[in-house]
Amino acid sequence: xxxxxxxxxxxxxxxxxxxxxxxxxxxxxxxxxxxxxxxxxxxxxxxxxxxxxxxxxxxxxxxxxxxxxxxxxxxxxxxxxxxxxxxxxxxxxxxxxxxxxxxxxxxxxxxxxxxxxxxxxxxxxxxxxxxxxxxxxxxxxxxxxxxxxxxxxxxxxxxxxxxxxxxxxxxxxxxxxxxxxxxxxxxxxxxxxxxxxxxxxxxxxxxxxxxxxxxxxxxxxxxxxxxxxxxxxxxxxxxxxxxxxxxxxxxxxxxxxxxxxxxxxxxxxxxxxxxxxxxxxxxxxxxxxxxxxxxxxxxxxxxxxxxxxxxxxxxxxxxxxxxxxxxxxxxxxxxxxxxxxxxxxxxxxxxxxxxxxxxxxxxxxxxxxxxxxxxxxxxxxxxxxxxxxxxxxxxxxxxxxxxxxxxxxxxxxxxxxxxxxxxxxxxxxxxxxxxxxxxxxxxxxxxxxxxxxxxxxxxxxxxxxxxxxxxxxxxxxxxxxxxxxxxxxxxxxxxxxxxxxxxxx
Length: 505
Prior knowledge:
Elements lengths: L1 H22 L13 E6 H8 L2 H11 L5 E7 L3 E25 L3 E22 L5 E25 L2 E20 L7 H44 L1 E2 L2 E4 L7 E2 L3 E6 L2 E4 L22 E6 H13 L4 E5 H8 L5 H11 L7 E7 L4 E5 L2 E14 L7 E19 L2 E18 L8 H33 L7 E9 L2 E8 L3 H11 L1
Antiparallel strand pairs: 1-10, 1-12, 2-3, 3-4, 4-5, 5-6, 7-8, 8-11, 9-10, 12-20, 13-14, 14-16, 15-16, 16-17, 17-18, 19-20
Helix pairs in contact: 3-4, 7-8
């Protein structure tokens, strides 16, 4: 029976290696060159997440499907004693201590000490004596065990995503006691069963618990991947987070490198000149995200193609723009543009004429865009009339921050260059006062108004992906030439653990 069990485990191991080999990823000679996104989790974050390892291990024990255990043994005077343990399941479980260590270029080592587990089930036993006396009996049993558990989790690439291999799993039994019918002081027959059942029982428990842990480790890896993929997807726009290289395990951090190619309908993204280097990130914070300038440009291009870079302003918002100051020049410009029509009967439309260009610099994110503005009025009883049309190239530098679960965008400076200017009140463009007023208005309140619309839209989008459920501490958004770094600390994301446990239970 044991030989057959070993054969099954050996066959399973061979199949597992074949699966790993067939699903292995291929990377070019310079994988960093195609890296668009990097995620680095440092050891403090690993220690924090390890605090809740007990719940996952408990799920592994409770989810494990223990097979029936059968056997027999020849005893002098008694003849053959046969037994069968059925309906084995975890009755109670507690974990005293869990430790994690990052073994460089090897594995995540998790040591779980003093796992006290109680199993219950039914024991059926019988024997045929020398005088042909046969006796069979069934009793409920309880197994009390004290176990140390060691797991070495290796990170690899399968199907272009992070995979966790927890097959390197060991159980050390410090105690394994069989109690029958609740009796804590077994007699000689009960002790007999404990002696020759324990070895087989240890093998079964180790096999099933370790298999379940390995399964849960991969389910957890898939869960995190799906969570990340959903976070960078909105309708037809998404980001390819396929791995660009094999995940790294260092003594002080874990790191994964992703392609970060933007996907949108027939839009094709190509990227092969990444400036990423591991030295660009430090180890002082719990979590780091590195993003290339290319990703932001591709996302903005996809948003442009999806016709998302359009803004309509009317009513009080329109009034606030054109009445930012009460001067003679302002009153003259308003009268010439709106011709006495109320703001409620007027509308301004703002949209990008071409793909905006983004350049990441130490001073902030520089956005350059060719923008059109169209103002129309709707006089009572008359046809709508376009009274103002202009095209202008706007360059603005923006600094970003995240506080109180909101994205904050702060414009530092801007440059405006008119390309086209048409106003029905001044068709020849002889009066520069309108253009001068509009240039000032756009700089002082127009650009901040557009940004004030972008802030809540992006915040709402991120919150729809669950970002507001995280307790993020002291986040920093740092721009450098060609890339951006987001670094932060965090509290344990209990909602993710609950979602994961609900998924597997």
